């Protein structure tokens, strides 16, 4: 069994901050201390190369990042709205009740009686809990609403209560 690397979305670039190429990021990972530490490599959407994180800091409740080669405000402004990718291994979390975003994105969200509600396209990391997003549906990822995740059949099945919450 080989060890493969996969590119995963870890952030969306927000507005520029200052004149030296720094920018705010909107997190798409629950491991920011790992993904954005100085020395880590990230790839900007549309680029072929990975750039090194050269600085990071908290600004209020948001994270400000500086990447190698993005050294003025004009460059950082041009990146607003682009995604940042990190390269990760294909391992799964040690706890069988935990999942990486990349494992959940692409699953079919199913109502308790089997109705397909759409494909999970995003996982929002809210302060209280993660939220699965499929089209116009956003479901808190808690056991009371999500009965099971079946990676084999590529599905996330809602409980009866979860189905009622989304109006199905």
Question: Could you walk me through the main structural features you see in this protein, from its secondary elements to its overall organization?
Answer:
- It holds the Pfam family PRC_RimM.
- Residues 10-87 form the RimM N-terminal domain.
- Binds ribosomal protein uS19.
- This is Ribosome maturation factor RimM.
- By secondary structure, this protein is mainly beta.
- It folds into two domains: 6-88, Elongation Factor Tu (Ef-tu), domain 3, CATH 2.40.30; 101-167, PRC-barrel domain (SH3 type barrels), CATH 2.30.30.240.
- 12% of the residues lie in helices and 45% in strands.
- The protein contains four helices and 13 strands.
- The protein has helices at residues 32-35, 73-78, 101-104, 160-165; strands at 5-17, 22-27, 41-44, 50-59, 62-67, 83-89, 108-110, 116-119, 122-125, 130-134, 137-140, 146-150, 155-158.
- The strands form three sheets. A six-stranded antiparallel beta barrel has the order 1-2-5-4-3-6.
- A hairpin with a 2-residue loop joins strand 10 (130-134) and strand 11.
- The relative contact order is 0.16.
Describe the structure concisely.
GO terms for molecular function: ribosome binding. The protein has 168 residues and is mainly beta. The protein has helices at 32-35, 73-78, 101-104, 160-165, and strands spanning 5-17, 22-27, 41-44, 50-59, 62-67, 83-89, 108-110, 116-119, 122-125, 130-134, 137-140, 146-150, 155-158.
């Amino acid at each position: 069994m080989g060890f493969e690397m996969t590119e995963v979305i870890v952030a969306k670039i927000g507005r520029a901050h200052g004149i030296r190429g720094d920018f705010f990021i909107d997190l798409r990972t629950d491991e920011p201390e790992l993904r954005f530490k100085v020395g880590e490599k990230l790839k900007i959407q549309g680029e072929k190369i990975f750039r090194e994180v050269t600085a990071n800091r908290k600004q209020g409740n948001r994270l400000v990042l500086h990447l190698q080669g993005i050294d003025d405000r004009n460059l950082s402004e041009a990146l607003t709205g682009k995604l940042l990718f990190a390269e990760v291994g294909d391992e799964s979390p040690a706890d069988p009740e935990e999942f990486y975003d990349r494992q959940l994105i692409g699953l079919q969200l199913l109502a308790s009686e089997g109705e397909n509600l759409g494909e999970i396209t995003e996982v929002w990391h809210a302060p209280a809990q993660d939220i699965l997003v499929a089209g116009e549906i956003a479901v808190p990822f808690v056991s009371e609403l999500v009965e099971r995740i079946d990676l084999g059949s590529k599905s996330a099945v809602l409980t009866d209560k979860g189905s009622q919450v989304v109006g199905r």
